[in-house]
Amino acid sequence: MTLLKLLLLFGLTALAEITGCYLPWLWLKQQGSIVLLLPAALSLLLFVWLLTLHPVAAGRVYAAYGGVYVVVALLWLWLVDGVRPSSWDLLGASLALMGMAIIMLAPRP
């Protein structure tokens, strides 16, 4: 799998997970409609299915996925919550992405 496809798959996986967790949060903390739980459940189902599409062992996928999740969560912070990430956030996200790249792109026998 090419790096671009891998990053896209990780990004979609993270977006599905964040959406699936954010909607119940809206329901519980912001007095949102209980109807939000249905798309939340569907989003989490999509998240689980997307995890099965990754080309390597599950533990390695979860470890590498964490790096992309950090970046997508910061994008969510900015675009949905309206909070601009700090330079420290961006540095941390860069380090997380470097960790993901090392895990996923390392030569394997």
Largest sheet: none
- What do the pLDDT scores average to? 90
* Beta fraction: under 5%
Q: Tell me the number of helical segments per DSSP (H or I, 4 or more residues long).
A: 4
What's the number of structural domains?
1
Query: Rg to the nearest angstrom?
Result: 15 Å
Helix share, percent: over 70%
The secondary structure category is mainly alpha
Pick out its properties.
single chain; 109 residues; 77% helix; flat
Summarize the structure.
With 109 residues, this protein is mainly α. The chain is built from four helices and no strands.
Report on this model:
This protein has 109 residues and is mainly alpha-helical. The protein has one domain (3-105). The chain is built from four helices and no strands. The protein has helices at residues 3-29, 37-52, 58-79, 87-105. Helix 1 (3-29) packs antiparallel against helix 2, helix 1 crosses helix 3 and helix 3 runs antiparallel to helix 4 (87-105).
Secondary-structure topology with pairs:
Elements: H1 3-29, H2 37-52, H3 58-79, H4 87-105
Helix pairs in contact: 1-2, 1-3, 3-4
